[in-house]
Write a structure and sequence with these properties.
2 domains, signal, about 140 residues, 2 strands, 5 helices, Peptidoglycan-bd-like, Peptidoglycan-binding protein, TAT_signal
Length: about 140
């Protein structure tokens, strides 16, 4: 069973650590949302032999434009974050929320201009933009 004094010390240490963790979690939660940290950097996307670059939200090339929602929009947002200089250029990541709003449209237009060419800028993700997002250069 062991030394009773050692057992009490361990129990007290565990109780103290638990109380500190609980107190920290309660007081730290509001501060965590106040300022973004380095952890806000985008996740990496990877090459999959059958489709090219993917962030594993959507594997197809479904048409997307302002007002679109779903996994294919998350894939577009994640690809822009994880495979381009968007984060470095803009100082923040594009929200990966599956909603193709003004921010996503602006990011798509930026991507089209930078990676495809000015003639491709329309803010719509069709076959040509998907190919560029997936890493196929025309």
């Amino acid at each position: 069973m062991g030394d009773p004094v050692t057992h009490r010390r361990r129990a007290f240490a565990l109780l103290t650590a638990s109380a500190a963790l609980l107190a920290g979690a309660v007081t730290a939660a509001p501060a965590a949302t106040a300022a973004p940290t380095a952890a806000a950097a985008p996740k990496k996307c990877y090459t999959q032999s059958t489709i090219g670059l993917t962030c594993h939200h959507h594997y197809g090339k479904k048409w997307a434009e302002r007002g679109s929602t779903g996994a294919h929009v998350k894939e577009i947002q994640a690809l822009i974050n994880g495979t381009t200089t968007y984060y470095k250029t803009h100082g923040k990541a594009l929200a990966v929320d599956g909603i193709y709003g003004a921010g996503t449209q602006s990011a798509v237009r930026w991507f089209q201009k930078k990676y495809i060419g000015a003639s491709a800028v329309d803010g719509i993700v069709g076959p040509r933009t998907w190919d560029a997002l997936r890493g196929y250069r025309n």
